[in-house]
């Protein structure tokens, strides 16, 4: 009898726990730019809470990537759990599609929904996105013509929208035309309106990986990282040995391709293609030829970036803008960098040609004790001349001006150390 009682008690606790979990309401924020990092967050949130009573999507966004919005839309439509979109301020562009995919839409008095004309606004893109909006509206028993008018300026809705305008609905219009179910002030009001107070109210947040992917794949951030990476690579190629440009190029290009890989925007193929391009460019720079490796390398680099950005939902316009910025800065550096103080500081002002008196490496112990004259400033390295021969030399502990008399006091390998000669 005692065992039966314990069994019933444990069963009661288990059932109570399951019932409590079934009453939980999860709030999922949809804020900022719509990116694939956000899509991963929404997918994980719904997958990890299959027994939720409801999901409330707090929406405040100007839009973002269409492919990410479609991924979120598909995830929301696939769940049997009650889904509620609460438009706090704006559900524009990609945000409008996410809102339309929810079973219920609530909008705040200051909220608006629509403005979903794609960029570029060509016929093919408009047609595809318009179909997504229409099918989503039909699935949720909303007027597909109104949804289509948010995308296509040619749509006409008597009493609401004229031809040539993109539809954006404010709160009262959204409720009047049955796009929104209710107008409420805040999330607490939404919870009370749908009688969801019994369970716990849990606000979910993206994890660090999802936040990282969202940041890296943001169009503006991604363009900046790519530009800095390509410029650093250019400086590293033409001023080898500095260390900083190489490291910066490695970090920026690693973030660019790595972030897009984690977001599912690119596989390993673009990375391999990019590395192949760099190898071909390196071969072109160090071997004589007709420019074929250089041309092939440049094409490979361009295709790897195109594959990463454009093929997975980016725009050709954004890619071309980024390339134009990079090329402009490279031309600027090519013209002005050799004349800058930074370049002169790290480089020699003239080539060390044999006919000018320069010699190949040999340990010149015979120079110890000999006097010479500085040709360039030693800071601490520069060029000196001893008995008609020119050498690269290092000052002992100070900068030495040109035309100063110096004396060699030490030779280590190919390094010649000098100090001012005492007159």
Automatic annotation (TrEMBL):
Gene3D superfamilies named in the record: 2-enoyl-CoA Hydratase, Chain A, domain 1, Nucleic acid-binding proteins
Q: Where is the NfeD-like C-terminal domain?
A: 365-420
The organism's superkingdom is given as Bacteria
Enumerate the spans annotated as NfeD1b N-terminal domain.
24-202
Q: Does the keyword Ribonucleoprotein apply?
A: no
- Alphabetized CDD domains for the sequence: Clp_protease_NfeD_like (cd07021)
**How does it sit in the bilayer?**
Multi-pass membrane protein
TM spans (from-to): 220-237, 267-283, 290-309, 315-337
The residue ranges of the NfeD integral membrane domain are 220-335
Gene Ontology CC terms, in alphabetical order: plasma membrane
Q: Where is the signal peptide?
A: none
- One Pfam family named in its UniProt record: NfeD1b_N
Compartments, record wording? Membrane
Protein biosynthesis among keywords: no
Give UniProt keywords alphabetically.
Membrane, Transmembrane, Transmembrane helix
**Designated name of the protein:** YqeZ
Which species is the source of this protein? Dictyoglomus thermophilum (strain ATCC 35947 / DSM 3960 / H-6-12)
């Amino acid at each position: 009898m005692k065992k039966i009682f314990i069994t019933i008690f444990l069963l009661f606790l288990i059932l109570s726990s399951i019932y409590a979990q079934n009453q939980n309401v999860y709030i999922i924020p949809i804020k900022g730019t719509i990116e694939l990092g956000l899509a991963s967050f929404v997918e994980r949130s719904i997958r990890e809470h299959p027994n939720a009573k409801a999901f409330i999507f707090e929406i405040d966004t100007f839009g973002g990537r269409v492919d990410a919005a479609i991924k979120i839309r598909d995830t929301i439509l696939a769940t049997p759990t009650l889904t509620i979109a609460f438009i706090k301020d704006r559900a524009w562009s990609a945000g409008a599609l996410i809102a339309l995919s929810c079973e219920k839409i609530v909008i705040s008095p200051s909220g608006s929904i629509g403005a979903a004309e794609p960029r570029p606004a060509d016929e093919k893109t408009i047609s595809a996105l318009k179909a997504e909006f229409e099918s989503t509206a039909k699935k949720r028993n909303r007027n597909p013509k109104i949804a289509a008018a948010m995308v296509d300026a040619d749509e006409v809705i008597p009493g609401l929208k004229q031809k040539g305008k993109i539809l954006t609905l404010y709160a009262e219009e959204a409720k009047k035309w049955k796009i929104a179910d209710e107008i409420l002030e805040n999330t607490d009001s939404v919870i009370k309106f749908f009688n969801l107070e019994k369970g716990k109210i849990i606000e979910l947040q993206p994890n660090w990986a999802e936040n990282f992917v969202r940041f890296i794949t943001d169009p503006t951030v991604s363009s900046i990282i790519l530009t800095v990476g390509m410029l650093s690579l250019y400086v590293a190629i033409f001023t080898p040995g500095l260390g900083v440009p190489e490291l910066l190029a490695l970090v920026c290009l690693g973030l660019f391709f790595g972030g897009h890989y984690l977001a599912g925007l690119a596989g390993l193929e673009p990375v391999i293609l990019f590395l192949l391009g760099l190898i071909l460019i390196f071969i072109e720079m160090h071997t004589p030829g007709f420019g074929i490796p250089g041309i092939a390398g440049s094409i490979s680099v361009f295709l790897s970036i195109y594959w990463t950005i454009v093929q997975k939902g980016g725009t050709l316009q954004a890619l071309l803008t980024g390339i134009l910025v990079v090329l402009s800065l490279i031309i600027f550096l090519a013209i002005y960098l050799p004349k800058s103080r930074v370049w002169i500081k790290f480089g020699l002002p003239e080539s060390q040609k044999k006919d000018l008196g320069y010699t190949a490496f040999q340990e010149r112990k015979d120079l110890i004790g000999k006097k010479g004259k500085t040709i360039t400033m030693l800071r601490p390295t520069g060029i000196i001349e001893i008995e008609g021969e020119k050498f690269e030399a290092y000052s002992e502990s100070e900068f030495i001006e040109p035309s100063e008399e110096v004396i060699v006091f030490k030779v280590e390998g190919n390094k010649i150390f000098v100090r001012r000669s005492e007159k």
